[in-house]
Write a structure and sequence with these properties.
This is S26 family signal peptidase. InterPro entries: LexA/Signal_pep-like_sf, Peptidase_S26. One of its GO terms (biological process) is signal peptide processing. One of its GO terms (molecular function) is serine-type endopeptidase activity. The chain is mostly beta strands and 90 residues long. The chain has one domain: Ribbon (Umud Fragment, subunit A). It is 4% helix and 49% strand. A six-stranded antiparallel sheet has the order 1-6-2-3-4-5, with no helix packed on it. The longest helix has 4 residues.
């Protein structure tokens, strides 16, 4: 999520509200459930199965980036909205 977030930054995230484009959300990596990812919400879609969002990277061309282009859309019910961040070292 560089440049928005840097390694070591702290986040306060809560499970609340529907995702909206531009929000930053936290969710378990769909490929490795022991790891959490922080991504920005792109598009949002609703279906009979629930609400899903496209997880996009702020720096999509960086080496090793993984987002919805790799793992698909994320169920909103399994995500947390980032409300506040603290820059590391402050």
């Amino acid at each position: 999520m560089r440049p928005t977030l840097q390694p070591g930054d702290g986040l306060l995230a809560v499970r609340c509200g529907a995702p909206k484009p531009g929000q930053v959300r936290v969710f378990a990596d769909p490929r490795r459930s022991t790891r959490y990812l922080v991504k920005r919400v792109g598009a949002v879609r609703h279906s009979e199965h629930g609400t899903f969002f496209e997880a996009v990277s702020d720096n999509a061309d960086a080496p090793g980036v993984t987002d919805s282009r790799v793992f698909g859309w994320i169920p909103a019910a399994r995500s947390y909205r980032v409300l506040w961040s603290v820059r590391a070292g402050r």
